[in-house]
From TrEMBL:
Region: Disordered, residue numbers: 1-51
Top-rank lineage group of the source organism: Bacteria
Protein name: Outer membrane protein assembly factor
A single GO cellular-component term on record: outer membrane
Transmembrane parts of this sequence: none
Domain POTRA: 259-333
Entry's localization field: Membrane
InterPro entries with a match to the protein in the record: Bac_surfAg_D15, BamA/TamA_POTRA, D15-like, POTRA
C-alpha cells in the first residue's frame, strides 16, 4: 500500500531550490500497517505533529510523514557531552558507532549534563530529540526505527506544553534502529556533463538520507558551473519499501537557461570611491556565469585588507537576455593598523621590528605601509643595524589582479667585516596569477657606501628585481602539509665602478604531516644563491651571500661563513655562490606544546658550487608553544662541522624557523 505525502512533509529546509530538494515531490511507504493509525483510534500527537503514536505511547518513525521530514532535516549533530545520571540511553540493535552518534546528537543528554539542569530545558530538549535522533537514523540508512523518549515514565510527545512537569527525575531514551535500508533506485536527471555525484548514491548502497541531498546539491552545482545560474530541483519521488528494506529515490532537476553576468550594484563603501570599488572587484559583466568568477570577485576585495565584510548576492530574477545582476555590500575596516615583532639569538642579539599601515590612503584603495627594524642589539655581529622602509600599493592597476607600487628603503648596517649605508628607490607591478602563484617585477635605483679594510667604496646600480612565489601550504606560520617555492632573479646595470650582472636566489620548502591530526611533521628546506657577471670586488656587498645564523645554519654564528678572496686573502666578504639545506622533525606533545629536532648546513664559495668553497653545519633541539598568531619558538643548537664557531647558540622568536 502506498500513498503520497502532502507537500509540507518535506519541511522548509528542502524548499530551497539551491541546494536543497524542492517541495514539489512525493514520499511513500509500502508494506506497513499500524493498528494505532487514525483508523484505529490514534493519530498525530498534538505536541509532535510529525510523529505517530503506538498503542503503548511510544513514537514510531516508520510512518511516511516522519520518514520524509527527517530525510530533509538530515543529521544536525550537537557536540558531545557527558550525560548526567538522570538521562539514560537504551539502543537495542545499534552498533557502538551508531549509539555514539545518537548520544552526541541528543539535546536531552546535553541538557542533563549541565551543572544545574532545570525541568524546562530538559522538557524542551526531550521533545526536540525526536527529530534530531530521527535525522541520525535516516542519515545512517535506518527507516524502520522506533524512538521512545519517556519523562518519568510518560512519553514526552504525549505531554502537552501547558502540562510540562515542574520537576524531572528521569529521562529514558530508547532507540531501536531496525533494519538498514539500501537504495533500490538512485536516480537524478538531467545531469550536466562532468558532474561528480556522490559515489555511494547508487543501487545497493546504504540509503543514507544525506546522500539524496548531496546528489541534489551536486546536480544543481554542476548546472551552475555550466552557466545555468538558476538551476534548481524541480521535483523528487522517494519511496520506502519496508517489506524489502529498500529506498527508491528519483530527483528531477530544472537547469534553466544559460546566464551571463549583468550589472554590479554596490553599497556600504564610505571612504572608498564607488568607481574604484568596481575596478578592484573586477566584476565580469557580459561574461558567461560561473560560480568561480563570483569567488574571484570576493577574493580580490578581501585581499585588499580594506573590508571587514564582503557580501555578494545574486538577483532573484534574471534580467533582459538572461542577464544576472549582483548586489555587492561591503563593510570597511578601520583605516590604520600597527604591528610589532621581536626575535633574539645569543650571537645575533635582539631584533625588534614594527609596522604602521594605512588603508585606503587617497580613497582609491591605496595601502601605505611603513616598516622599521633595529637588529643586532647586544649581539656579537659588529653593531646595531637600522632599517626604515615604506611601500605604497595601488590595487587594480591595469587589471583587477595587478597592483602598482612605489618602494623606498634606508639602511645603516654594522657587520663584522664592513659598515654600510644604503638607499633604494623603485617602482613596479605585482600580479596574482591564481590563489597559489604570485609575481612581482620592479625597477630600482640602489646606492650604497661601504667601509671596510680596503677603504671606502661607493656602489651604484639600476636593478630589475623579478620574483615568482608559489605557496600551497595549509598554514604559512605553522605548516603541516604543502609546498612553498620562491625564485628571484635580479639583473643589474652598474654605474661608475660597479659591475653589471645578475643575482639569482631560490627558497624551496616542503611539509609532510603524519599521525593523528598531523601530530608529527617532516619539514625540509633548500636554498640556493648566486651572482653572475661582475667580479667579486665590483659586486655590491648586499648582493653577496653569507652562511650562519637563524636564517641559514643554526648553531653557527650569524654570517660567520664567507670568503677571503680580496686584498691577497686579508679582506673577508660574502661569496658569490650559496647553498643551504635544513631538515626538521616536529612532534606535538600536547595541543600547545611541541618539540623539534633539526639539522642545518650551508655552503659558500667565491666561484663554483662544487669546488673551492666551504661547508658548515649545525644541529639542535627546539621547543614550540602554539598561540593564535603562530608558535613561539625556542631553539638551542651547536656546531656540527666547520671552523666558524663553537658553543651553543640560542634562538627565540615567533613562527617556525621556516
Amino acid at each position: 500500500m502506498a500513498g503520497d505525502l502532502p507537500r509540507r512533509a518535506y519541511g522548509p529546509d528542502l524548499r530551497r531550490a539551491d541546494p536543497r530538494l524542492s517541495a514539489r515531490g512525493q514520499f511513500s511507504a509500502e508494506g506497513r500497517k499500524n493498528p494505532c493509525d487514525r483508523g484505529a483510534g490514534s493519530g498525530h500527537s498534538a505536541a509532535n505533529p510529525a510523529s505517530w503514536k503506538h498503542c503503548d505511547g511510544s513514537v514510531s518513525v516508520r510512518r511516511p510523514q516522519f520518514v520524509f521530514s527527517a530525510i530533509l532535516a538530515a543529521s544536525v549533530l550537537a557536540g558531545p557531552a557527558h550525560a548526567a545520571d538522570l538521562v539514560s540511553f537504551i539502543t537495542p540493535g545499534a552498533d557502538e558507532a551508531l549509539r555514539t552518534t545518537l548520544q552526541n546528537a541528543s539535546l536531552s543528554r546535553e541538557a542533563g549534563a549541565a551543572k544545574s539542569p532545570n525541568a524546562q530545558d530538559l522538557f524542551a530538549s526531550a521533545r526536540a530529540d525526536y527529530a534530531r535522533l530521527l535525522g541520525v537514523l535516516y542519515d545512517h540508512g535506518y527507516y524502520s526505527g522506533t524512538i521512545s523518549i519517556r519523562i518519568d515514565g510518560h512519553e514526552a510527545a504525549a505531554i502537552a506544553p501547558m502540562d510540562a512537569p515542574a520537576r524531572i527525575g528521569q529521562i529514558e531514551l530508547t532507540i531501536e534502529p531496525g533494519p538498514r535500508f539500501v537504495f533500490a533506485e538512485a536516480a537524478i536527471a538531467p545531469v550536466a556533463p562532468g558532474t561528480q555525484l556522490p559515489k555511494d548514491y547508487r543501487i545497493g548502497a546504504t540509503a543514507r538520507s544525506g546522500l539524496i541531498v548531496e546528489a541534489a546539491t551536486a546536480g544543481v552545482a554542476g548546472w551552475r558551473e555550466a552557466g545555468h545560474a538558476k538551476a534548481a530541483v524541480a521535483g523528487q519521488k522517494i519511496i520506502a519499501d519496508h517489506r524489502a528494506n529498500t529506498l527508491a529515490a528519483d530527483v528531477t532537476l530544472a537547469p534553466g537557461p544559460v546566464v551571463h553576468f549583468g550589472d554590479l550594484h554596490t553599497s556600504g563603501n564610505k571612504r572608498l570611491r564607488s568607481k574604484r570599488l568596481v575596478e578592484i572587484a573586477g566584476f565580469p559583466t557580459g561574461e558567461r556565469y560561473a560560480p568561480e568568477k563570483m569567488d574571484k570577485v570576493r577574493t580580490r576585495l578581501r585581499r585588499t585588507g580594506i573590508f571587514s565584510s564582503v557580501t555578494l548576492t545574486e538577483a532573484d530574477k534574471l534580467g533582459p537576455d538572461n542577464s544576472l545582476d549582483v548586489e555587492l555590500a561591503v563593510v570597511e575596516e578601520k583605516l590604520r593598523r600597527m604591528g610589532f615583532g621581536a626575535e633574539i639569538a645569543s650571537s645575533d642579539g635582539l631584533t625588534l621590528n614594527g609596522y604602521w599601515l594605512h588603508r585606503n590612503l587617497f580613497g582609491g584603495g591605496e595601502k601605505l605601509r611603513i616598516d622599521a627594524e633595529i637588529a643586532g642589539v647586544g649581539g656579537a655581529t659588529g653593531g646595531t643595524d637600522y632599517t626604515l622602509g615604506a611601500r605604497l600599493d595601488r590595487p587594480a592597476t591595469f587589471t583587477p589582479d595587478t597592483s602598482a607600487f612605489v618602494v623606498s628603503e634606508i639602511t645603516k648596517t654594522y657587520e663584522e667585516d664592513y659598515d654600510e649605508r644604503a638607499f633604494t628607490l623603485g617602482f613596479g607591478l605585482s600580479h596574482i596569477f591564481n590563489d597559489r602563484l604570485t609575481g612581482e617585477s620592479a625597477v630600482e635605483y640602489q646606492w650604497s657606501e661601504v667601509n671596510d679594510d680596503s677603504g671606502r667604496t661607493i656602489f651604484r646600480q639600476v636593478a630589475f628585481p623579478n620574483t615568482l612565489t608559489w605557496d600551497n601550504r595549509d598554514v604559512a606560520a605553522n605548516a603541516t602539509r604543502g609546498y612553498y617555492g620562491m625564485v628571484a632573479l635580479t639583473p643589474f646595470v652598474g654605474l661608475g665602478d660597479t659591475g653589471s650582472g645578475a643575482q639569482l636566489k631560490g627558497d624551496f620548502r616542503a611539509y609532510k604531516g603524519f599521525g593523528t591530526d598531523n601530530r608529527f611533521v617532516l619539514a625540509g628546506r633548500a636554498q640556493i644563491g648566486g651572482v653572475f657577471g661582475p667580479s667579486l670586488a665590483a659586486t655590491p656587498r648586499d648582493y653577496l651571500f653569507y652562511s650562519g645564523g637563524g636564517g641559514t645554519v643554526r648553531g653557527q654564528p650569524y654570517e660567520s661563513l664567507g670568503v677571503d678572496e680580496l686584498e691577497g686573502g686579508t679582506l673577508r666578504t660574502g661569496g658569490t655562490r650559496f647553498l643551504g639545506v635544513s631538515g626538521e622533525l616536529r612532534a606535538g606533545i600536547t595541543d600547545t606544546i611541541g618539540l623539534v629536532a633539526f639539522y642545518d648546513a650551508g655552503f659558500i664559495s667565491a666561484d663554483d658550487y662544487f669546488s673551492g668553497g666551504e661547508w658548515q653545519s649545525g644541529a639542535g633541539l627546539g621547543l614550540r608553544y602554539n598561540t593564535p598568531i603562530g608558535p613561539i619558538r625556542l631553539d638551542i643548537a651547536a656546531p656540527v662541522s666547520g671552523s666558524t664557531g663553537d658553543g651553543a647558540q640560542i634562538y627565540l622568536g615567533i613562527g617556525q624557523a621556516f
